[in-house]
User: Fold these one by one.
Assistant:
Number 1:
Amino acid sequence: MEKIYQQIIKGGMVVGPGGINNADLGIRDGKIARVASNLRSDEAREVIDGTGMYILPGLFDVHVHPVYVDSIADCSALGAHGGITTMIHYAYSKPGTGLAETVQRFIEEGWETSHTDFAIHGAMFDAKNQIDDEFSNAPVGSPSSETILPVTYQRGVNEGRLDLYTLIRALSEMPAKIFGLYPQKGVLQEGSDADLVIFDPKKRETIRQATQHSNAPYSLYEGFECLGSPTLVMQRGEIIIEGGELKSKKGRGQFLRTKTSGD
């Protein structure tokens, strides 16, 4: 029989437009080709069992600093472990460096090394004295891309502060809309990129710096116990994380041109 789909994800609870529904996903040519009940397993080259799992659209991190201890390659890999399939890197130009030059350098590094799709936003840093110049070289931010989903799921959903649909809208749908990437990204519907996370709500995890994938020497959430964790992450139909292992290669990420309402 002709194989209609590269993969079918069967039996999962799909967090999609309007809520959470039991449905199968048929994936073809890197896109969601079909969302329906009871897709035929013999129509796919591979069947992935989603029973008991939430199927989430891939997440966004819209402000990433790949300039301190983690490179674009590092950030994309550690983000993928946490279910992030699209990163927007912050390319700020230090004194003596033009913004256009900095942005182009970030784009080229992303093309060559990123595991996941990426975009760039930038700003000028105009240091006026030695103190400002020293500040511009100080690390800003914290290693949190890998932990944002399990931590917010634990604190938000498990502890009753918000529902899963609202959480995923905040982490996926709304960033995609803000940056003009919806519905290519940020939603699981027919025609969208097959960027998705298979999330096990019963998988327990204790966050430890030693098991995280950032080069940072600490975690903000050391010892924090979470119930719920990604087990598989896919981008454009390609499995990039499975069973805690990175399956993708550097340079497979695509550069995304964003568009906001002010553009």
Note: The CA atoms of residues 11 and 149 lie 22 Å apart.
Number 2:
Amino acid sequence: MGVLKIKFACDDDYMVIIEISDDGRGIDREKLGMKAVEKGIISIFECHRMEAEMINDLIFHKGLSTVENVSYTSGRGVGVAELMESAKGLGGSVSVRSKSGKGTKLTVNIPHRIPRSQLLPNQAFPRIMICEDEVELQVLYEDILGTLDVDICCFSNGLDGLNAISQEKFDLVITDLQMPDMEGESLIARIRDIHKESIPIIVISSLLDAELDAVLREYDNLILLTKDRVIDILPLVKDMLFCERSRVAQ
């Protein structure tokens, strides 16, 4: 069984640094280069002259994959390409290093703070409620969303979150599904009873299946994310809070 490691850090330049590494076979550069030639991304002449790092970077071309058997979740050459697009859209970057037989490491750099100039004058910071029973994930979400000018309140179970939202105003809810005291599905139903469709909800969970997905999609103003797409919460929250407020102000 292989080992997958994920590390998070912040540097002095207000960058969130996420490192994802494994101890697998590494990138097959010869096979990757030939696939790129087949798809017309590079010429055979360019392939033979490219350095190892340049060939590694070919994985960021959408639709390029060395996997022979394509499935619903892998082999389509989309994952890391979309990761690169998301990072660039936030003013960040993604780099890759790989050694044959020793594994591959992806490094994602994302700006740690968005200028206050994006907020309207004299505007109070939007409030985000996070319901997540894993402390490590609470810290991760706070680190990612800490790049925005928002107030974040974390709760370890759905019941505490429900009590808070019944008494206080929140502009966005981010919730897990499996939590003690009150699970996420029940929390969402109660929130909709109180606030109808006015408050957006982002569900982040590893428990999503076809049946549960269909139930949750019956709710308006709700977005589903699997936990392997955590990086997507930043552009989602930016659009749901700041872009929407700018449109209303206009």
Note: The chain has a mean pLDDT of 82.
Number 3:
Amino acid sequence: MHELPVTKSIYQIVLKHAKRGNVKRVMSVNLEIGTLSDLQDERVQRYFDHLSRGSIVEGAKLKINRVPAVFRCNRCQQSFEVDSLLENDLSCTQCHSRAVTLVSGREYHMQLKEVRRITYASNSDTGPFTDFTLEIDARLVSGTEHTDYGITFRRQCRGNFYFFTVSPDGTFTVGKQVKNEWYPLETGKSAFIKGDNSTNSLKVICDGPEAQIFVNENCIRTIADDSFNGGRVGMMVGVREQPYGHAAFDSLEVSR
């Protein structure tokens, strides 16, 4: 349980700096934790998920990097690294003295990264649609593997809709925006997503609270959520690390 107060401190610091920078959504947090720390990565992530519910940090992934411990020899002042506190490790690598002092290896560092910027558009002259099939061809024109592009659906008004995006690294996200807050519903990787600048055929079949998600005619997920029962459709592009992204869309079709 000692992970809880530490994770709470991490969450509070992330939230503080995100709000100070007018960040709309935090997608990930980079952490460096010393190898001598007894914090368990899975527990830290679990507590972080619990604490961040309903905030701009909800859904953020902790990217934890374990850094080696550094000791300094009290006799010759040589510094050396160890991976654990095994007795044989705690001797100077140069003079073999056991009179050593811990310099670092129990602390943790963090860095905010991947602040998502999103642009999306829909046609106000068509729809709204309730139960329907939406199909579109989409490809990345410029950007990196961290560019997300895809579709919005059941958009009721600004800041209230579902979305489905893919990226060149094979990842996808299905989620929703409710009152301008982003909530991921399903994320993962799929071998059916084509990388680089290849065209991906995206499809969503909405029937009541369920939505089937397709990439290149392959169903990769089925979600159930009743936040929105109808609305308009559109396209969206999101960037995480780089300041730009350009995607092309073609052959948008909606059928009932």
Note: The chain has two helices and 17 strands.
